[in-house]
Amino acid sequence: MSEASPGAHSGMAADHRTMNRREAVRLVALLMGGAMAGYGVLLGGQEAPGRGSAEGFTGADRALLDEIGDTIVPATDIPGARSVGIGAFMAMMVTDCYDEKEHAVFRRGLVQINEACRAMHGTSFMDSTAAQRAALADALDAEQRADGEKKGEGAPSHYFRMMKELTLLGYFSSEVGCTRAVRYIEVPGAYHGDVPYKRGDRAWY
Q: What are the DSSP E strand ranges found in 48-92?
């Protein structure tokens, strides 16, 4: 989980967030069928050299990423990805955890997704309807799967795969994702200092 992502992880202790981030990274990599971009840096708690938090991403970039993320994980009776500040989260993670090649692919993807939307629907992503965005996301998801099968090991992922990975990671390591999108049991849970006991019972741990 991102300590630098405002609103996404409120009310959680920092060490709890780090633990959940590591588990979320493993889960997202598994769901996506392989290692995700920035995997080693994420698990190692390192920062990509030479860049600061969310360097180079504008407010318009983050707003576009909010809408892309909300298309991947839309709101239902539970808030969607936009509600956890997914655009700021993606910008920060790309800056801090992706290498230069991955960073460049992701940044070009912000242009390419608008080009793809105009080619399919005649409008920019931000001006498209929810149905148009969903249709584009389905097409791009199929494209990134085919792209992954053609690329050799070590080549940067398709930009939409990166966006999908980061959306899932950011959302399911946020407070909303952890406590409302899935069932949640706090560990170690509440303290019960007075419980029934009779001689011979095993002790509580």
A: none
